[in-house]
């Protein structure tokens, strides 16, 4: 799963396999994060359930349509919500210090065709989609309120 890892000026960086998208992506973590925890987060990313993927797709469509509406463009129409995945490319898993024992968490940065400048972020905790929206790089352990205007989860 983890292809390689190295210390790069105080950050652990590397590459991992993301099976769902059939691609390799980067990961980044503070050097204080244990490499076993990075592996747990990578495994957690690859074990996300279809129910969670469906939720991510639905939220990503809402985010896409909100963005397109804000710039006066026609909204995306998909036969199936998972068709949105053709407009998304995962790029980096950010691994933060664990805060609930060794519970893994996903904070995934993605490139998306509709928001090239800021991209998108998915945060998954405890088997639930916590955040879908513009990439913020915020600590994924912080509270994400589902009613925030910029959280489409």
Protein described:
The chain has a 7-stranded mixed β-sheet. It is an alpha+beta fold and 153 residues long. The protein is globular and about 45 Å long. The protein is 22% helix and 33% strand. The two termini are 27 Å apart. The protein has one domain.
**Mean pLDDT over the residues:** 91
Which class do the helix and strand fractions yield?
alpha+beta
Major sheet description: 7 strands, mixed
Q: Number of DSSP helices?
A: 2
Give me the count of strands: 7
Q: What would the keywords be for this entry?
A:
single chain, 153 residues, alpha+beta, 7-stranded mixed beta sheet, 2 helices, 7 strands, globular
Brief overview, please?
This protein is α+β, with helices and mostly antiparallel strands and 153 residues long. It has helices at residues 35-46, 50-70, and strands at residues 2-8, 11-18, 23-30, 88-95, 105-112, 120-125, 128-133. The chain is 22% helix and 33% strand.
Record the SSE blueprint.
Layout: E1 2-8, E2 11-18, E3 23-30, H1 35-46, H2 50-70, E4 88-95, E5 105-112, E6 120-125, E7 128-133
